[in-house]
Amino acid sequence: MEIWSHDGKLYQLTSGYSLHDDAWQYELAGLTGPSGTGPFLSVLIPDTTLDGPFTPRPASGIVVHAGGGIVPWPILEKLVGVLDSSGDLVDELRDLSAEAISLPLTRNVWSHGDRRYEVNHFHYGDIESWCYELYEVELGNTENNYLDVRIPDASPESGPFVPLPADHVTLTMHGRWELPWPVFRRFLDAIRAAGDIVEAVGDEPKPVD
To answer: Where exactly are the structural domains of the chain?
Structure first.
């Protein structure tokens, strides 16, 4: 278990084997604020050998559970860093080509298996931020489950968009949603590739004993 402090709030990362899911689970939860307010974000890595030591399946089968709430970008980066260094992202086939991660202003449609996703980005004047949204295109789905990353504008009144540093950026999880790790990872890669994630000027998340 690890506990990180960022901007006066505490976040806990736990990892362990989930017998219910036959998978290794990394779970991020907010500890500050009323119970149940989150954020809640977990990553499940399926096990290929149920009768032996944990052996992760290829990364294409990893599932992300977005359970609601707001995660600061630096905390999200800490979580991804733990996963990258864990050795559990086996055969992760990240496509970092411009074709895969560039985001034209028109609607972007991604596919993963038989599921389809759309990514949009736009300036949201009401909150003076540039927003990136990811949601699944599913016929008949009435649930409003989606992710958005908000990058506040440093000069909303005086010209073109200028991103504030990464310690002001947030991931907001709307509803409760399950999505493939490759889609989630591609979403983060595309945002970084756009050049809107500026190095943080504040303190990095600190471990709490």
So the answer is: 2-89+103-201
